[in-house]
Protein 1
Amino acid sequence: MNRFVWPLIAVMALLVFLVMGLRHGDPRALPSPFIGKPAPEFELPTLRNPEVTIGTNKMAGDYALVNVWATWCVMCRAEHPFLLELAARKAIPIYGINWRDSRLAAMRWLDDLGNPYLASAYDEDGRVGIDWGVYGAPETFLLDPEGIVIYKHLGPLDAAIWQREFVSRMSGGGQAE
Amino acid sequence: MIPEIGHFALILALALAICQTVFPLVGAHRGDAAMMAVGRSAVIGQFLFVSVAFACLTYAFLTSDFSVLYVANHSQLALPKLYKVSAVWGAHEGSLLLWILLQAAWALAVARFSTGVPEAFSARVIGVLGFLSVGFLLFALLTSNPFERLMPAPGDGGDLNPLLQDPGLAIHPPLLYVGYVGFSVAFAFAIAAMISGNLDQKWAKWTRPWTTVAWMFLTLGIALGSWWAYYELGWGGWWFWDAVENASFMPWLIGTALIHSLAVTEKRGLFKSWTLLLAITAFSLSLLGTFLVRSGIIVSVHAFATDPTRGFFILTFLAVVVIGALMLYAWRAPSLDSDVGFGLLSRETFLLLNNVLLVVATALVLIGTLAPLVVEMMTGGKISIGPPWFNVAFLVPMLPLIILLGMGMHTAWRTQKADAWWRVLRIPAIVAIVLGVVIPLLIYGRVSILLVVGCGAAAWIVITSLILPIRSLRREKGTAGITRSALGMSIAHLGMGLFVIGVTVVSAFGVESDQALQPGESIEVAGFEFHMVSLSNVRGPNFSAIEAEIEIRDDGKLIDTIHPQKRQYLVQKSWMTEAGIRAGLDKDLFVALGDQLGQNAWSVRIQYKPLIRFIWLGALVMALGGLIAISDRRYRGSSRETEATA
Amino acid sequence: MKRLFVLVATMLLVSTAFAIDQGKRFDDPEMQARYEKLISEVRCLQCQNQSIKDSNVTLAADLRREIARMIEEGQTDEEIAEFLVVRYGEFALYSPRKTGKTLILWVVPFLLVLFGGYALMRVVKHRMSLPIGDDTDR
């Protein structure tokens, strides 16, 4: 094989690689390093009542959703109706982490739009967010009854994603459609 | 109505581009002069219709026609007129139209200015350029139509990304694209040579000016982008190894290698197949760059709207073009070998070194840009390759190149006698080493390995670049002066030296300080006093801002008052930092507002940047060198001229 | 002045693009230098391709704060890097760490130059063996 064919071969390899790269998906999506590991422990004051705390210890025993949200987050508002629907159906316990927000504004938001959360933790300075590897809102974590993180979804939740990514990962617990 | 005219014009342009492709290529194959002439007319027609389309899009922006989706997404009523125009190329669809326009413009230039070239050859070149136009026009019409309507039309638009609302942006993409697209001409010349099977020193002579012009514009475009990022984006940084920056830098590196390789081919008929390969690679990198930026495959500060469908289209086009070219190469290259030689110490050797090091540098940039993707696809983990790696990796081939640069210029073709060579270079070498130590000590009071090497290398390039021009100035009458080609080379290399000076000094001696400041307070940085006079809020046409007034004093004397701002653009609600800069050739004093620390206090980043303007000045001088080189007598071709030198 | 106050107060309430940073600057120049170096090597994950030093967004400010805290607590650079990698993965570091898989990346530049040099040597050797010719060759 003459040496002038090498550039062609190299380029074809590069092209194959680029095609694979294209089908790969969003380059900005960070897989959560916690998948398969226990959810990072925390205990924070709840949004409504700072005297009462909510934390990972209260979430064990059943599948749970931990949803990171904020009033300044436009996409959170977009997914809110679906969360309300999940809560109404009692499909899965939903806990919120109100991330880097104003307590007043957050409470008012829930009053106006409805509250799908069993409780919302108030993460004022974002420390818990960092511990969970949160880098945008909304993010939703799926925890199993032992408190292990099974899945993390970036961006707003909807019925299709719920079915495809969450329900499929829950065996036994949680209600399917 | 106007958008529809624009759309229709694009379709007509596509039809003409198809003519521009088919007729000349078939005509050249058959020796049919009439068919080949059709190609030239098609070029003019395509250019006209693309211009019409471009004008229609510009019109839509100027009249704020929000029924056009692209305009609605990237403009608003309150946008200043200059930016309404520059918004035309501010996002994917419009910048693609700009590419198409420039592709047609280059084809027009080739049709107009290649009178010294045989008809069949230039017909093939035009045909290849037509093929490229077809590809891009199809891409636009099928996936990225800038004239798509939005019904019902909104009352106001989504505003142009505030990052782009700046005079620097108005010129940066056009300049850059002229270069980017311009490499397609060298590419077309290469394809034409391979189709005809004819590649000789004349071919190199024809190709060289086209390549140099494209290279010049790319140099200017990249430099402008760097300068713009410096004052607009980067908190005083001027290069970030961002994927989009790399996408424009890789063609530049290969383009530089190509110019040097063409020199060897023109002079001695050597490295023909290598030069061909470089010509193919330069434009392939342009295409690759456009793919990377528009496909969503790469994370970047200025990647365009991400869309895998578009990515697939470009990738297919890239595949067709490059694979086709390389197949031709594999077929033709083996017969191109020549059997002349050269000695160990010769200009040919140095130019080979130049090429090897530039190719290594390009490969490193490519690896750094794509490696995160490779790793992610193979292992699922995400790694990050940023400036810390790039800065080190790039220096590995570049430092030797800088040193070899000074030597190669003064090495004769074929063989160079070592003692004569050393006689020329001995004093510059000593002076460079001495200056490398003395300059940092004298001016800035400090010395380090990095500094000595950097300053020494810069001094070395500057001195060796000036040898030829100075000699020609001092010549007695009766001897020929320096050719424009050699003068251009010297000036271009001098520009490189200025660039290295700028980079070394600002990296080594730059000072950066983050401090909290309130009105009435002062801070000292690098011997200058920065006094915050006041904070106020101001309004612009489409933004509101906090503005600080900062007085700069040197030794108690007021030298300037600057106004850094923190702007919030009203529609997109994004925040922008407008730095206050006291600029000067010897140094920049750069102040940017950081975070709000309290009611009236802000964190302020103050930077002292010595000789940073040499970075862009160096690039300018490099481009000037290119301009001088192509004005050389032997490129002012008429057919008569060509025969005389044949 | 009152208008400025109102504007500033409103921005403080409404906008979380402003992070309120307190005391992230160190008096100790060595700690300050470590801080500066670390924040220039950590990626701002909310942004596209910027370090947390150069970015304005909330998360960047939060991470700067955490890093400052860890420096103050006496943690080493490696421990701080590990903290970030545990939560965000290797991607959080701008520069691949010089360990294991990523070590090869740091070696690649030298490998390429060596390879290029070898290829060049072969070409030059070959050419040296051919007739050099004179100015009349075409």
Note: The domain at 36-169 of chain A is CATH 3.40.30.10 (Glutaredoxin).
Protein 2
Amino acid sequence: MPKLYTFIKYFCVILWSCFVIAPFLWAISTSFKDFNSVTGGATYIPWLQFEPTLDGWSVLFKPGSQGGINIIGPYFNSIFVTFTASLISIALGTLSAYALSRYTFKAGFVQNNDITFFFISQRIMPPVVLAIPFFLFLSTLGLLDSLAGLILVYIVLLMPIAVWIMVDFFNRVPKEIDETALIDGCNPFQAFFKVVLPNSIPGMIVAGLFCIIFGWIDFFFAFILTFTNVQLLPVKIVALNSSITPWWSLSAAALVSVAPLIVVAFVVERFLSKGNLSGALK
Amino acid sequence: MNFKHKFVFLLPGLIVLIGILIFPIIFTVRLSLSGWNSFNPELDFVGIKNYIRLFTDDPRFWESFFRLSFLAVTTVFLQYIIGFALAHMVWKDIKFKRFFRVLFLIPMMTTPVIMTVIWRTFFHESLGPLNDFLSIFGVQPQWLSSPGLAKISIIIVEVWQWTSFMFLLMLAGLLSLPKEPFLAAAIDGASPFKKFMYVTFPLMAPISIGAIIIRLIEASKIMDTVFVLTSGGPGTATETSSFYIFIKGLREFQMGYAATMSFTYLIIMIISLTIIAKVLTKVLMKE
Amino acid sequence: MSLNLGNIVFKPKEQYHLNDISLNFEPGKMYTILGRTLSGKTTLLKTIAGLLSPDSGNIQFEGKDFLAIPVWQRNVAMVYQQFINYPHLNVKQNIEFPLKQRKIDPQLIEKEVSDAIQKVGLKGFEERKIQELSGGQQQRVALARSLAKKAKILLLDEPLVNLDYKLREGLREEFKKLFIGSEASQSIFIYASTDPLEAMQLNGDIIVIDEGKILQTGSAKEVFENPANAKVAEITNDPAMNLNKGKIENNKLILNNDIQFNLPSDLQSMPSGDYLVGVRATDLYLDDQGFDFQVDISEISGSETFLHLHNQDVKCIATIEGVKSYEVDEHVKINLDLSKIYLFKESGELHYSPYQN
């Protein structure tokens, strides 16, 4: 019996692995094609079935004026917006999470759990609901099509994640450590910054990873709220999806844009194996 | 412990959140009570006319809602089963454990829209590799142009993308389980199947619930995939609520009505997700 | 300078955790707060520390209103049951922490820290990380940190309860030695415990607390020999003192049909009537001439055996020397030391104790 189970296990794992890799392989192959190779029917292996070219790739780095698709600009925009929004979300979110974990709040019938729920429920908001109002909101503030405006919006998306993860995390740091810090002469702020925070680094890294992931992959808000000045990566790539879709450059651009997060995958896996993630995610 | 300092901790985040949110929410509600559309781009007041229209004269909205529920539940269900199974398989006793774990994590790290763009080429009916492969069997399914298959295409893409997230949560959960129950089971000579049914699964119950709820919340917002892969089509076959609202609001510019739909949708989602969360907790905790 | 608590009430969610507590602590003395789990000991300590605010009442320390001073400005120190140290700091940094916080001169800090490390026997461990230490060592670090602070009030909440038996004995002795140091420095030393044996060994003033109320205060000897009421008698003995209803009639003490005996000389002057008769488990012994009892449970603990016995409605526990095994329902003959009988009024108050003069 065990042998059969092992066989099934490997079979399933390998099967799923193929499923995971499939689109990547296809994209890699496609990125080296040109117009004819694509329209003649599906082709896979370079040199055997088609002539590979570097068109798809080179066009990424040429500026628009020479018929290229500049993705370097959007790349950096995405990085900047994601990181800034994540940092602010984690900072504010961790503070609020600490308060929710350690203190009791009561305003009428609203209690701690309700406030936490309020934070987390922001994730339920479909982007659509917020898109139009945010559009008008940002235009009133003159922040449409700007990095700052987008960051503002992303904070709403990411802070709930930070709060959700950190509240859970703080609940598992013994209160007595806070108390001892207070007894040792720290006021509540010092207790937090000198004692609790240094011991919360794993939790904050997890929160950070999730914020970065969910920030990086956003499409909708960037799509609605930016046009020409500021362009983010996902938007840029979808924009390529026009009537005559250049599959090759599309694939190349796509591959380049998902590459960074693959690094994140390694980081996350390392965290998992070290057991830090497990604790924080429960 | 209760010190006045607690407010300084809580309020910055809360105020920023409410501050950025409050205008949109109030505005949406106000907008929903107006008749703003492309002919009449003004914030007039028409009372609850939009709401009445929504509840009596717009089957398309409710169909889209039904479709959304179907897609969300199906994908989350599949993601849970596959994600849990995968996590269990790479949990221990397997070669290249770390390689597989990293590999399985990759999909969720990718930008959904971008991958969907690639999937679009993948599913292409005449030039895509999928149909090329299937032509060996003599079938050329119309992945993106037939209503039923379009739904399945969406499900496939969603499953590819987000099973990875379930996988992460489940694996983290499995890795955090205490060793003792398993040692006890080994001593009692339990078969792998029994071990799973009576030890692993019950211990994972709270984590399962959390993961399912989180995924349901995210899945109910399905937008990117629909937008790129099928644009809601063919016809309205894959039109989810989000997409319908998007069309009404940002394509047809019936902002007032779109706001009505948005607000209603939001309330329904909050209520149903809260109920689902409570029910799931009761059901899975009992076992 | 003394610490005074007046009418402290702490009543979260309609349940009394502290019910009208008034206490006086003199500097340079050791106090043991003895009570069962959930009797309010920890709440009391936390209130003194300032982590909890009472709903009503007042606390004065050194003549000042203590309640107006927040935790971090009160000069107290606390050691918890769970070994609480700062995980991200090593041993030396842990002990330095409160001193650095108060911006004390670095040279002075060095001296105080090495003094404290010396006192708790952790010399050489300065650079170790907390996680590398054993339970006993971690608790010693916590203790050292409290000592280095030179706090005026030192609070210990069952600090030894999570350590093994041998370690507990050893550290308890060290505590007493350390206390003598604090005696010189005029600190107030407050130690909470559930274990009457521990309270006796520490030999300070005992404060017996139950359900948020103070039942009795006095020296260890006083509280042990003359418990103010039946509840105190239960709390200050382990196993709890045996209490059974009894009657004094016709110069006899009658518990039930089987168990009756002539009043010993000291009790001859007691008025007839109903009483609660108390006798310690250690004052019962096996005796062929004794009363017949049936064994309910036989527990072995260390080098003693605790026999849970009954004779009709009279129940008691007897401590027998040595490790013996008894079957359930086995019959044994038990006698008691008549000179060690306590009499409590039906309401629980002490009526007669063998030690009162």
Note: The CA atoms of residues 61 and 165 of chain B lie 29 Å apart.
Protein 3
Amino acid sequence: MSDANKRLRSLSVWVLATLLVALSIGACGDDGDKGPGAQGPGAQGAGTKKGGAITIALASQPDYLDPALSYTSDGWQSLWEVYTPLLVYPHKAGAAGAKLIPGLAERLPEISADGKTYELKLRRGLKYSDGTPVKASDFERTIQRVLNLESGGSFLFSGIVGADAYVERGDADGNIKGIETDDETGAITIKLAEPDGTFQSALATTFAGLVPGDTKFKNLTKDPPPGVGPYKITKSVPNRQFVLEKDTSFSLPGVSAGNLDTITVKIVKSQERQVQDALKGKLDYVQAPPTDLLRELRTKYKDLYREYPTNSIYFFFLNSRVAPFDKLEVRQAANLAVDKSAIARLYGGLIAPTCNFLPPNMVGYAKLDPCPYGDPGGPANVEKAKQLVEQAGAKGAKVSVWGTGDDPTPQVVEYYADALRKIGLDAKPKIVDGGVYGATVGNQKTKAQTGFTNWFQDYPHPANFMSLVDGTTIQETNNQNLGNVDDKEITAGIERLKKEPDLGAVAGQWAELDKKLIERAYLVPYGNRELTLLFSKRMNIEDCTVVHALYDVDLASLCLK
Amino acid sequence: MPGVRTPTPRARAFARLRRERIALASGFVFLLLVSACMAAPLWAGQVAHTTPAENHLSDTIVIDAKRTNVVALDGVPIGPTWRARFFLGADGNGRDTMVRLLYGGRNSLLIGVSAALLTTLVALVLGLVAGYFRGIADAVIARALDVIWAFPAIILAVALGVALTLGGLQIGPVTIPAGSKLIAILIIGAVTVPYLARPIRAEVLLLRERDFVEAARAQGAGPLRIMRSELLPNVVPTLIVFFPLLVANAILLEAALSYLGAGIQPPEASWGTMISDGIDSILSAVHLTLVPGGMLVATVLSLNVFADGVRDAVDPRARVRLEH
């Protein structure tokens, strides 16, 4: 063979080899296991079909699979089906799903005239998914775990008499003075230090989902405790998958029993891959498909694709304890630097630009018009922002902009960092996995200056959103008040208005607080999100998919054709 | 016979290389690609009028008298315009793909070449010491190389990259900040050392028994002098043969590290990060993956073919081969 032929043969070998390497790099990613395939009966007519198994995907591991700790919508969506609290929201869409009903309690609490004492009674004969009887004293254990583990939800129960003392003592098994229980009668009495118009809502969160009295004081994500709910977690392999199996012994009025036998939740980091798998039938449900696929999904797969509004706020936190955002001018500059309509494109148009912090459908929302930083749908005011940065002496200040790896957050963070660079800050993105993001930026030691965050309502009350800017909720770890907002006037206003039983009467005052928050530039709100869903062909979307105002898609409502 | 000049080994090698037309053409292509990447600031400043990290999400451009969004309202970026601005289109953040491609190439080439140089230096020292001294030195070095060799390079590199990229690296008093390119250079340089050190060691083991080395010892030359004056010049052809291959491997490894988030950090670009960013848009904006992927293939391929030619020219009996 001539030298030229040898060279060509070598060339083709190298072409093949290098192409293979490049393609393998391009295809590299988290390769989730193959789906289990359909189980149970095949597709039949309309109607709610019982039984069967589905596989759904999340792009990252939920923060925790422990009801005392989880504070993300991904975590709550599953945990809501496993851990029923004393009070619950019905598994219904719209306003019907936002009205509290008794869960493990026989009835809604009797509240004393001064608003400080709540009396409830546990239903009789309840058992956890492992057969252990449910006792009234389990409620105190449940709340102890939330406080002892420094959960992000601690602030919801810190108003209970003795809660602060319990935390200060550091004795996990110690008593919380304001919780009295009687296992014989099932009576549960809760005493608050001050009246709190949102406390019933706190009792309905998954934080208050009862767990057995011997549940350990540690993160039980790898081995979640038993609960009372339509489903139980039978397998948990963090960052790989967890499995919800129907608890056939579960029965509670107002709480769906669940249609499917098994729901496997896989962690598939590539959302592109999730969509491909859903269209091939390897996955049955995908939440928030990548924005660049929306055009195709809206046209070619419109039968399998749904969009729905949420009560949410997407914003950049500005840590007012750490330079340069400890200066008002720099925070104002950050607000002026951001073009919210530009960010909307990164979400495929599924973000509605906003000036407010409270979402439009929330009581207490009053549109800020004019917005102090310009029309939210208009361009950024880079020149004015630059001037403010120079005025504050912050030009060239190094800034780390934090974000998760979940699409499209990295792109949003890169845009925001670029916007900050344009106004004179030396900003660089810092992306971390979604599963550890909250714990990382919520740890005061990180000193996270600014970054992405969002909030979906836990319950239909403005205090739920305002808790993120309430000075009394700042924690050393699992902090939800990422901006460390500690404005005396705003905090006092929140604490006062929270106690008001008639929300409608004080809606205007909540709106005033919202206005002050924006004027003092404690954060950069940029939009309210519409969420998107993609289903596989075997899912019965029309007859049995409930999108709950608080918990997104109700997994118990899903069924096969 | 007086008046007859015998060509030197170097001259013979050049003559053989001149006959390797495809290798030379590949080398030229590689130089062209490198030149294009080096000219990135020129393209960015004078032609595209933007920077690699600058977002143009809300911008519009005029194409054929029609005003078009750089990024559509539903988030789909513009494709190649074949004009000064957005020559190869834009990415999801409205950044100019051509500008990022060229700047990304600078990063990829910088890390690739630097890592290859580091590998060469370390492998040379280890190979010389192990091969010349043998005994305990050889045993320790060879076993250490075996341990690194046992791990697939990419897995080892990614593991190190993930650990060091976010937290940085502290070596005694020296701190390398998180996200620094030096971390990628050190990781890639370190994991590929065995690929060169082993062949050098093998060659030195043979060379140390040769007459000229014995003669140098007999004249009283110490180990350092023998390694520098007798062994090193004879090992250089091996280095010449391996170096382009090391650069090619290092560029590929860097792309893989950056693709997996353990290499170049945003907002800087590299071909690996561009492929990673583009994968999620592969259906709506295929240019975002195809362009950096194509550039990577062209660069690595041209370098490998050139390296093949160099090997055949310098070492026609193919005594030395890159071990995999």
Note: DSSP finds twelve helices and four strands in chain B.
Protein 4
Amino acid sequence: MEVKEEQVGGVTVLQVKGRLDSATSPMLGERLTAVLEAAKARVLVDFSQLEYISSAGFRILLQAAKRAEQNTAKLVLCGVSGKVRQLFDLGGFLDLFSITATREEGVAAAQ
Amino acid sequence: MATVSVRKPASVVYGVDEAPPIGVTLLSGLQHIGIISIALVYPILIAREAHLSDEQTSDILAATMLVLGVGAVLQSLPRGPVGARYLCPPVCTAAYLEPSLFAVKSGGMPLAFGMTAFGGLIETALSRLLRPLRPYLPTEISGLVVVLIALSMCNLGFRNLLGIGSPQPVDLPEYMVAAATLAAMVGLSVWSKGTPRLFCALIGMVLGYVVAAAVGKLTAADLETIVVAPYLSAPNFAAYGWSWDASLAIPFAVAALGTCIRGIGDITMCQKINDDDWVRPEMRSVSGGVLANGMSNVLGGILGGHGVSTYTSSVGLAAATGVTSRRVGYAIGGIFVLFAFLPKASAVLLIMPRPVIGAATLFTAAIVFVGGLQIITSRLLDTRRTFVIGLAFMAALAVDFFPGFFAKLPAGMLATFGSALVLGTLVALALNLIFRLGVRKTQELTVDPARLDPVAIEAFMEARGAEWGARRDVIDRASFDLTQSIETIVESCEPQGPLEVEASFDEFNLDVRVSYLGPPLELPEKRPTNEEIMASEEGQRRLAGFMLRRYADRVASTHRGGHSTILFHFDH
């Protein structure tokens, strides 16, 4: 898995590429913890190049969402489509996160 | 009493068992008749090939309309062994067109009708054998058949547009009529909404008539044909008798097979658009639908009409409008039966200008072609299946590329090897049979927990899916369950030694079994709460178990003598 970080209009965008499973999710978890540390952080996780997500991946997303809430930060997901979207639906996660279709909409929602 | 147990999707306004208001029923019926009527050019083409008079052509059209009406009602019947039990009206099929043209050339109309009835009997027999035959009629071959039907329609369309084989060359005004007709159909289909879009083909045809009249390609003599046609009359059914020619048995059997394969696809689509809980084809409905079509074709042969098949565009129209009530099928049936006894209705179609026929044929061919491609690509294709489709397609093209070579074949072989549709289908069926040799329906994989490679596990499932020609969505689900289960077992169950995976497939079922030495994996029916998932790895494992259970159609977990096995079952 690769995580690319960039700043877009005051929003930290994390582009996740590859597989998010028990072996790789700790790495994303650490990055999310770091960027959500700051109060009122604005974070967008772009999953448009994500191929697979396991229960371990969902766990770190839930933990990140909780951390965002505690720090009055904002966490938005985008590019959740195809097989990955089915897994979000299957696990009952679609309504738990703020999810937008495109990166542009995601940046606007996070600002 | 409703006999189809379904959960109506939100997009469906009037479901299969519901009764729309009478106005909606009739208007919906007329819309279907509009798109079905385009294909009434096929019996006209056959009549022109046989140099029949207007009156004789009118009789063939009447017989065909009667068959279309009876067929629409049969498909909609709510109970009994006959019919798909859905709104699935028939249409004149190009699958029977090419063999019928052969028959007309070699034995006249009696041979065309006798062989059409024979094709209907073959379909009737096939309808009883669909389940055991399914491995030999895989989905990608049904897609290929649809593509080949589109190619034969394309051939016919251009013959009309370019005047190939006609003593009268095509002139500029005729090209203008064709361009206006095709542009209207495509333009309305692409850029309009609502009613104009739904009626795009019909509007295009009407415009074609108008432009043809304006440029002098629809004369007063043509209009006279409508004027002199009586309002009501009893058509001269079965006026030609029937005959049989063994050399045409294969082409008509292939036409029947193609129609049968298409029926399976269309009826499956009917089931899918009517049921949010749809998982797999319900074979009783499919068999009943194929049987109804076979009976319609036997009736068509007896009465002197053209061969029919289920109609993908009608199923698509029902889905697009949200009116899928079987009562619309009864309305279509009633109106077509009525039209069969109204010669003026036949006369309007009878005078259809050559470029309008060509444009309408090309318009529908384009839609059918892409539909066929979509059916082919809905399955995972490995090297074997790639060659089945690729070589069969090229064999079919060879017939059209090198007609001179095939024309030299002995008369007995010409009907089989001189038809792109027939040859392509036969090559595909033969190659499929050959390539089935050596394909193991059960495959194993050993996973070393110390060297867990999720990508290799997914690749195993993907490769098996392609080898078996399994549905992509089912393989995706199985791949997730296999990868996630192994990941969770390795993390939480501390397996002693390797994990053994066994995947087996038989067209209807995909079973994936994971066995290991260690405690069983929990597969809870209730999702753990978010707090439980976040609080501990135990919560995460229970989430994994919950998702594994939900993604499979059935799961079974056993634990004996320290050995645990999880079976994931997927309906296919």
Note: The two ends of chain B are 29 Å apart (CA to CA).
